[in-house]
Amino acid sequence: MLPGAPWDVAKSIQLYGFDYWGAGYFGVNDQGNAIVRPDGHGGPELDLHELVDQARQRDIRLPILFRFNGILRHRLKTLHRAFSAAMAEYDYQGGYRPVYPIKVNQQRHVVSELISAGRDLHLGLEVGSKPELVAALALHENPDALLICNGYKDRQYLELAMMAQRVGREVIVVIEKPSEIDLLLQISREQDIEPGIGFRLRLAGRGAGRWERSGGERAKFGLNVAEIAAALKLLKEHGKQDWVRLVHFHNGSQLTNISSLKQAVREAAQMYVQVSRYSPRLKYFDVGGGLAVDYDGSKTAFESSMNYTVDEYARDVVWILKEACDNAEVVHPSVVTECGRAMVAFGSVLVAEVLGLANTFTTTVDAKAVPGQTEEDTVLNMAQLLQDLTPKNCQETLHDAVELRQTMLSQFSLGLMSIEDRALGDQCYWALLNAINSATKELHYVPEDLRRLPALLTDTYFCNLSIFQSMPDSWAIDQIFPITPITRLNEEPRRRVVLADITCDSDGKVERFADLRDIKHYLPAHELKEGERYCFAVFLVGAYQEILGDMHNLFGDTNAVHVDIARDGRVAFTNVVHGDTVGDVLRYVAFEKSDLVERWRHALEAAVAEGRLTARESAVLQRKYDEVFGDYTYLR
Ligand SMILES: Cc1ncc(COP(=O)(O)O)c(C=O)c1O
Fold it and tell me: Which mutation among 79, 103, 291 tests ligand 1's pocket best, with the greatest number of atoms within 8 A of CB?
């Protein structure tokens, strides 16, 4: 694309990085609308703007979380293909058993879709609590798929796991604490059942990335070498060595650096080899989760990225394990992965509408007209700086402008400046900063202080969503999610914006955006047009966000729509899960509708008795109050 050429969709694809973070699932069509390709590159394309229209025609209001069944299926196949290819390449004999850790997204329709897509691949489930196990007991129906029980366990948890074994599921109870073996020995005696167990290893090597402390010797979970030796001794004393089927480690989610993963696999593979000498039925090597998602598309070891591909991940696991087993003449185990993030993150896209604009810092001023409006020297000087600005003096002008603004603020604080002069002075200052920023485009080298200007000169777009509910990791751990407008991508975005949500919390903002080299502190966006809906899509929100989301200000779950492509090629909304209503979220905090309605009725009666309202007016106010309980928690 030549510099100065008119804007087109290719420029938007580049600017927003669709091809970097989108893994082929997202792009832009000729109409300038964001699209989703559920089957990846070359597959059918769904126009997000049209999907929003179709949802709205069905009275499904924004914000809407779209879940794409096709992407879930495609991710699973991608992972499976990577391991099959690696095993074929290295002549690995052990086979691959994918497992979905349901903690990553327990939404019923997501889990069911994965189970049905993974039937032929023998996709198993991993659970970490009793509620997750209860769900898995009912949904997991494939005798050739694993059911892995992680997390701390009590007797009830273990008994539930044994129930699954009784009905023919292949259950592995992963031992997190030595005392769990004692409990299992008791249950086995009482119920005459022989459980399958696994050891979660507490490896010496840590992971890398935000969750690096999930691994290493001080990790919360797992058994250290001494504990494993003791466990093997205990099992031998009871003649139960053949309970051990699996060796497992999990060094944290979102492992950004492949070298830390390789180090962990090496250590764990040696443990597998050692344990196999004591446990004749050991046959699974479970590398846990950790496979990352490249949220910013930079392909680096940055927290929101990853410096490797799925294929590289699979090849490294398979090769290291094969080498360790071959050297020790141990039969190749089946490789188990519990990669949830990489399976479901891509599948969900949140679309939210912009409600308005605040904090406009993109402004211009007619500097020549300023002397006619004020006699205040500082303001006149600011306007003069604007008139005298050239690319050559722009750094010096910035320094002068900052100093002059300080003087202006002091004058105002001391009561020496009127509110009108202060307003005009501020406008000149921001107009000057915008002009300086434009002038820097002429420079061959842009000095550091000028480079900070774009992040300063941002407007705020208010969006009808709650960051805390829909993208909590953006707030809690500074996770980057790719965000783009869903329309007008064939127009140049001339505004720099940050996003604010509708909660009453100053943290309810997104001010960090995906960038290949660094973090971008603004998002390019289009001018809002009167009467035209302008929406953003937040991509890659399928992992953890829904379940970690909270109800700050009582904004509840958003509407969720499962999208699939029917056999005849038509788009189908296969499931619609309506978001929380006002009544739902109030009930969550123990406010019963009947009680509230009755109390409000008393207040209205009192107002009627005092003559503030007529009986008829009170009826209208009662009806309005009642109605809101069934309504969506987001703004209309
Ligand atoms: C034991 C276990 N397995 C799998 C996962 C999922 O990992 P990921 O988020 O990398 O998919 C987790 C999450 O932390 C976990 O604790």
Answer: 103
